[in-house]
Every structure is written in structure tokens, then in C-alpha cells.
Amino acid sequence: MTLREVNSKMVEATVVPGQRLFSQRGAMLAYKGEVSFTPNIQGGQGGLMSMIGRRVAGEATPLMTVEGSGTVFFGHGGHHVQVITLTGDTLYVEADRLLAFEGTLQQGTMFMGSQGGVMGMVRGQVTGQGLFTTTLKGHGAVAVMAHGGVFEIPITPQRPVHVDPQAYVAHHGDVRNKLSSALGWRDMVGRGSGEAFQLELSGNGMVYVQASEEKL
Amino acid sequence: MFRLQGSKVLAVEMTGDAVKAKNGSMVAYDGQMAFKKLSGGGEGLRGMVTRRLTGEQMTVMEVRGHGTCWFADRASEINLVGLRGDKLYVESSNLLATDAGLRTGTTFTGLRGASQGNGLFTTTVEGHGQAAIMSDGPAVVLRVSAQYPLTVDPGAYIAHQGSLRQSFQSGVTFRTFFGEGGGEAFQIRFEGDGLVYVQPSERNTIAGDV
Amino acid sequence: MSAYGAAGAAGPVVYDPMTLPVDDNVNKYTFCVELKSGQWFLQKGKMIAYYGAIDFNGVGHGRLDRLVRTSFHSPLHASDWVVAEGSGKMLLADRAFDVNSYDLDDGNLTIRSGNLLAFQPSLALKQSIVPGFLTLIGTGKFVAASNGPVVFMEPPVRVDPQALVGWADCPSPCHHYDHGYMTGVMGGLRALTGLGGASGEEHQFEFVGAGTVLLQSTETLMAEQATGAVPHEPGVPGGGVPATGRPQQPGAPRLPGQLGDLQRRFGL
Fold first, then answer.
1. What is the C-alpha to C-alpha distance for residues B123 and B84, in angstroms, rounded to an integer?
2. What top-level branch of life does the organism fall under (chain B) (predicted)?
3. Could A189 and B24 be called an inter-chain contact, meaning their C-beta atoms sit closer than 8 Å?
4. Are C259 and A216 spatial neighbours (Cβ–Cβ below 8 Å)?
């Protein structure tokens, strides 16, 4: 595996010629060997369309391409880091939670609203991150940042999981999401606020939740 | 049943029973849950009035249902405290959740609150059951007994239980090369028989600068 | 015997002066120092609790002059340090950062001033030539904090300045500028507009030669401890100018949850 957790706040990446890596700008802590860092304007791959998509999405998280031969250490802001390995499926994650990911993964942008109606709107309102979210698809490893570490909750058809949108980090698998509200919750937090809803995830997969209601 | 998931998430398995938790601290749940806002931490009207007077801000919710509910608050470390009839004193901002059967109230704690800007009152938890308290970094639990009194920095103090007397003492004499005053810092001295919880971090304190 | 905390296996570990470790970690974030009629230098605000009879005095305290003369050579931030003396056990911690002790055996180690918590008087503390760093020389123990566990690396290595905790023995820390990153479209834009700021990718500290480099997981969260200005005299780098370090967030204590500075980083 290219990405390895050194400790709870640092990952180590092995860079070999011909296999590039993308990382958030400013996240490099140290490196050994001959490694070059090139800032990308449009963030990863995807060409013009993706660039426009990003403009619209407001997901302007600056990325850089990491190439060469050596070892690179990544970390950022003292946040906890979790490496998630994808084997052909799609990971949904907010762009500014991405610390680093392998170049083999296909990067895209998805309109969350298309998956569950109001969802996108409220997510956007709650997290202040717009209606779009980043998708990574294929085979490879992703290092994701979270405030205070993440824990995994499996989603099974019998047991849908409800997550506070502000504590939601990422999910993968064959999962549908929609907004719901538990009995009494809306009365408690106030009807008007975006917090009145929970993200209900159902199907088969895994959701990553952080130990905090604060976004990065 | 309280269980820690990692050190920063509290998982509570419920089978129709209830817990009291800091408002909005739910991060996820499965199964069926119902939420109810509780007015003030104390018992009934008297508790509410006390709260009004003390200005202690603790908004509490009751969660009842079947399934697992996960709680967390700003990535704070969570410590479980078992109570068997004794009383826990905790800064209200550090209380995450208690068994619904535990009584919560407010007590006057004097100066310490003032030095923390936390008000003069502290939350008390009483009865038989479990409570989850929060700290910045995992708390260290220190025993106080007759032969071992303990001195604590006010900014690192989070909670205590048992029958303890507290007093204030001045901490450091700061006299520097330039004669500029660092002032004096306060420390809290605990004597008696009980446990004190301290966190590996100091809140912004007015006086506890040791 | 106390009635409290006898909860058995299920409850948390309860410590008393007998069970607290001697000059060792209680957990990853708390360190216990034992004093037996001895002395330790502490940075102000890092002692969280103690048992026993321990006095704390500012470094300027007259009675300590002799000790300060032999062990403390950094007068410009003397007001940040106190001497603990007496007998007992005291707990040290720093904003819930990882805390570790290091033993020097007739050695030297240079450390970011904000990361150093405490040291034994058998070590001498001096200001490093590199602004913002302190050097400990001699034989003894010191305690330092880091954001996340410290990772040790052997030179040659290039390190983001913000991730550097310190180094031992390395004779030649120097600056390295990444030419490729500075040029090109983005580099040009930044040079023209000043937008985008600086990050570790265009500028690193480079270490070569024999030694050890100490690395933490980033970065701006550790408040920079002012080391004061070095004397204004010929041949002294940075003389007369207060060593402010990089444009840091002010040294205000971090509240729980106040992490990250994506906004600043992204120039928002």
C-alpha cells in the first residue's frame, strides 16, 4: 500500500516513478529522496469539465501532484488522519477533508442533491460546503482528515444509520442517503435550523463519523 | 449501558431506557431514538429556579429508544465515572451524559469558579449509575486521602468525588530578572477522602498560571 | 484506605503518590516528575497537579541565582520559567499535546522553544543560533511536547519548518527552496500577486550529516514561545530584531475544537 499511518496524525507515502499521488497543498511535513511537488490549479484530474464543476461547486481545495522517488510524510493542522482503502467502489468525501490519495483513483464531483432531494441543500447549509461533494472511485488508498479521529459504523439493510451532518466525514458502498429527523429532535434544536435534520444512510456500506460536531 | 468507542466517543446501548446528555452531542444512532429537551439540570421547578439564579448554562436532552446512540463533543476525551451512592462535582461544561436515574443539581463552589470564569456554581451528579465526563486529553484520576493531600492547578481541574475540602493557596512567586510582576497564581488544595480528576491541559484561567 | 475508586477492573486507574510513575509518563499526555529535595526547571503553566511539599519560584528569585547561573542561559525569556523544588510528585502537561521525556548523555539537542516543558538543572539551557529554538547541553532529562507522537528521522531529510520539533547532533540545518514549485504558473502568480502564501512545499529545512531529526505532525498549533531578541552586535544573525518566527496565530490558548487553520492557509 502506498499510504501508511505512521501515527494518529501522520501518514507516510512511498513515491515511485510513474505512480503519482495527490495531496492537499501545505500538507507535506517532510520528505526523503528526490520528490517534486507541483501545484494544480484545477485539482487533480478531470480536465476542463471538472474544473468548471469545481468552480460551480466552490470546492476549490488546492491540490498538488507529488511525483518522483522517495518517501513523503503528510499531516495537517494536527487533525487525525485515517487511511481508507478502496477496492473498486466509490468514496464520498468533502474535498477539504482529503489529505492525500493515490493517482490511480478517479476523482469526480457529485451533486449531493441528486441523491436524496433536500439533502444537498441542508448539507450545504449545515456544513457550509456547497451542494457538491468529491467522489473518489477505483482501487487505491485515501488519507482522510477528521477532527478528533473517526469511527466506523457499518450500514446494513436491516440497520440504517442516522448521522449528525456536522459529524459526518465520508461514506462508501452501495448507500442511499436522505434527510430525516428523529422524534423530538426538531423541537429541541429549533425548526428553522439546518441542524434539525440527520443524514439517514441505508443500504450496504460503511459510514465514517468524527468525534466532533465541528467541521474542519 | 455506557461504553467507550475509542476515547472520544461514548456509545450507549439502549433497550427502551433513557440517558440524559448534553444538548446536541449526539453524532449518530441506529435503531429508533426519541429526543426531548430538558429544562435545566436540576429537579423540577426548584432546580430550574436555582439554575436561573446561578446562571449555570447546561442544556440537557433526554434520549430514549432502542438501539445504539453515539455521543461526542468537540473531540473531547471522555471518561466514565461509576457512582455508587456518592456525589460527583463537575464543571457543567465537562458533563457529557448520565444515566437517566442519576440526579443532577447545582452547588456553590466558591472562588474556583470565579477564577475559571465558569460561574460560582458547579453541577453535582448523585445516585447509582454511570456518568461520562469530558476533558481536554484523557483525565488522570488522583486519590486524596488523609496522608496525601493534593494541590491542583485550577485550569486543569475538571471534577471530583467523595468528601473533600478545598482551599485556595497561592502558587508561585514570580520575580524575574527585570522585576516585572508575573503576579501570583492560585492553586486549589484538596484534603479529605476522595478522587480528583485533572486534565492534561489548562483552560484559559485568570489566575492559574503556573 | 479510601472508599473511592475501588471500582476494580472496570473503573479508571486511580493514582496516588505511591503508584504514580517516577520520572515517566502517566499516559501519552501527562508526565510525572519525582522531586526528592531536588529541583527542576518548568515552563510556566505546565504543572497541573502535585502531591507533597513543592515550592515554585520565578527564575528571577534571588535564592536561585547560583542555579540559574549554571543552568539557565536564556535570560530573555526568564519570565516564562519557574523552578520547582522540594519533595513530592508533580504532573506536567501541555494543552493535551503528546508529552515525552528525553535523556541526554553528555549530548546536545536543539528544540523549538514552545515545545520544551521542563528540564533537570544538570542540563544547561541556551538559546540556539537558529531563532525560536533552544539548545540543551549536558547530561540529564528533559520533557517536551509535540502535536502527535514524535517521529525520529535520519538525515538527509527535508522538513516543513512547521513540522520540525528539533534535532540532535546535526551540524548543518539549512534552508532549501524548491525551484520547481517557485516557478511555473502558480509560482509566477504567487510571485506577482503575493497570493497563495508560503507552505512547506517551496521551502524546507534541510538536514545532512550525522544526527537525528525530530518531527511532529504539524504545525501552527503550538504557540510560539518568544525567545526574545538576541543582542545587537556584529556577526549575530537577527540581532536587535525580536525573533517573532513566522506569522503565527497569537499565543492565545487553544480551546477544544479550535483546530486547523484552513482559512488562513487558503488565504480566505
1. 17
2. Bacteria
3. yes
4. yes
Q: What confidence tens digit (pLDDT) does each residue in C45-98 have?
A: 889 999 999 988 877 666 677 777 777 776 656 667 888 999 999 999 998 899
Q: Nearest CA to B209 among B190, B182, B179?
A: B182
The DSSP 8-state label assigned to residue B7 in this structure reads T
Grid coordinates representing A170 are 465520508
Residues of A in contact with C147 (CB under 8 A): 9, 78
Is the CB of residue A85 less than 8 Å from the CB of residue A1? yes
Distance between alpha carbon B134 and the CA centroid of its chain, in Å? 7
Rounded to an integer, what distance in angstroms lies between the CA atom of residue A153 and that of residue C110?
44
How many whole angstroms separate alpha carbon A212 and alpha carbon C194? 35
Nearest to C50 by CA among B29, B118, B149, B103: B149
Is residue B143 very low, low, confident or very high in pLDDT (cuts 50, 70, 90)? Answer: very high
Cβ proximity of A130 and A169 under 8 Å? no
Alpha-carbon gap, residue C13 to B10, rounded angstroms: 18
Return the amino acid letter for A56.
V
Instruction: Tell me the pLDDT tens digit for each residue of C158-170.
Output: 998 889 999 998 7
A62 interfacial to chain C (CB closer than 8 Å): yes
Unique residue bearing C-alpha cell 556577526: C235
